[in-house]
Amino acid sequence: MKCNASKISEGNTKRSLSCDDECARLERNRKLALALNIDPAAHQDDHVPYSAETLRMFRESSKWAQAQEREFRVFAADEAEKRLRFKPMPSHQRAFLRSVADDFGLDSESMDPEPHRHVAVFKTPRFVMAPMKTLAECVRIRQNAEAAAANAIEEQRRLRSNNEAYNAFLLTHPRFGLTVEEIRSDLSTQLEATPGLAFDISFLPSEEIVIKGKPASASTSISPSSIEAAVKAMKTAIASIISAKRLASSCQLCTLDSSLNILRRELDMSGNTDGWSRVAAKAAAPRSAPQQLGVGEKSVYTVLGSRLKEAKKKKEEREKAKVDEPVIDDWEEEARREEEQSLEVKDQDTSLGNQLASNGDLSGVSASTGKIN
In whole angstroms, what separates CA 78 from the centre of its chain? Predict the structure, then answer.
């Protein structure tokens, strides 16, 4: 824009453009982001500010949903508007409106009975601003992410099922403080046994160690199948040294690319060689045929069961006796009555003893107490 300045006029050098609605909206969003400590750049990547349910309903009717989204954005940008009322519509469309309102940070409510039921949207203090990304953009981002995930899964499946030749050893859970020099010193005899073949020792980010075979020089040509045959022949000796000197917990063959990415490892192709199947195989109890009992012989479980049944029956009888026993209001009167009953029994025994003594039959009576023996 030319300034149109001259000797007698300053032109447009000191004139500024007036801020329109779009400028005011951007400035308001900038201040809100600064106040809420929101990084606008973080919302311009693959972040999706909408729920999965909103995106699903948008895909079902994208053209109609885009028109409703425009209504939401116009309402969100107008500070004077506090309520937005939509026309009556079916329940699945009302569900989409309420889901979008929740993603925008707006409150929503369904009003009036059918067939006039509609959705009203309100601005509340929790509303800040409309999402920067549209629903269509987020659907594309989600589709790209799903496609990338599917490709990654397919690539992993392909890498696991390929038959690339082994070219390295993989040491898992190495000893703490183990160095490359120690490994090379301990395995020098085996690593130098194959002419024309050299080995590089490297530590992986996963704290595993790889010993990769390669041609000893640039002029040496060794096929992948030859390297695989060499490492297979060396594995038994190397694994025994690693176990004896406790360099690592295990040694297995693997396939590495030029960036030391593990494309294939030996245990991936060996089936159920680890995990619970292996534990169960070692710790399973031996099976034995059931023993036949002799005639009239009871199993120990039968004896225990009968004893438990008798004990349970006695316990139930005691509890029933406690329930049937009447509650005594005056315990002192009850104690006096029991004492009188015991005295009456004693008097009866004494009179019976005297009667037997008068008849001359003292064989069943104690001379000292008068009681019947």
Answer: 44
Which candidate, 232, 253, 244, places its Cα nearest to that of 170? Answer: 253
Q: Is the alpha carbon torsion for 281, 282, 284, 288 positive or negative?
A: positive
Axis crossing angle, helix 91-104 with helix 52-60, rounded to the nearest 10: 140
C-alpha 16/C-alpha 214 separation (Å) is 69
Average pLDDT over residues 166-174: 92
The mean pLDDT value for 124-139 works out to: 88
| Residue labelled with tokens 């937005």 | 84
Q: Residue 19 region, left (φ>0) first, then alpha (ψ -120 to 50), else beta?
A: beta
326 has a pLDDT exceeding 70: no
Q: Write the pLDDT tens digit of every residue in 224-246.
A: 888 999 999 999 999 999 999 99
| Alpha-carbon dihedral angle through residues 98, 103, 104, 107, given to the nearest 10 degrees | 40
> DSSP alpha helices (H): ranges in the chain?
21-35, 52-60, 62-77, 91-104, 135-161, 180-186, 188-191, 224-244, 276-283, 300-324, 331-358
Which residues contact residue 260 at a Cβ distance below 8 angstroms, ignoring those fewer than 6 apart?
A: 202, 204, 210, 212
pLDDT digits (tens, 9 = 90+) for 205-231: 888 999 999 888 888 888 888 899 999
Number of residues that this document lists for the chain: 373
How confident is the model over 267-310, as pLDDT tens digits?
755 444 444 444 444 444 445 455 555 555 555 444 455 667 77
- Tell whether the model's pLDDT for residue 68 goes beyond 90: yes
CA distances from 18 to 12, 15, 23, 208 (A): 13, 9, 9, 63
Q: Based on C-alpha coordinates, what's the Rg of the chain?
A: 47
Q: Taking CA 253 as the corner, what is the angle to CA 248 and CA 259, rounded to the nearest 5 degrees?
A: 95
Q: Could you read off the pLDDT of 73-84 as tens digits, one per residue?
A: 999 998 888 999
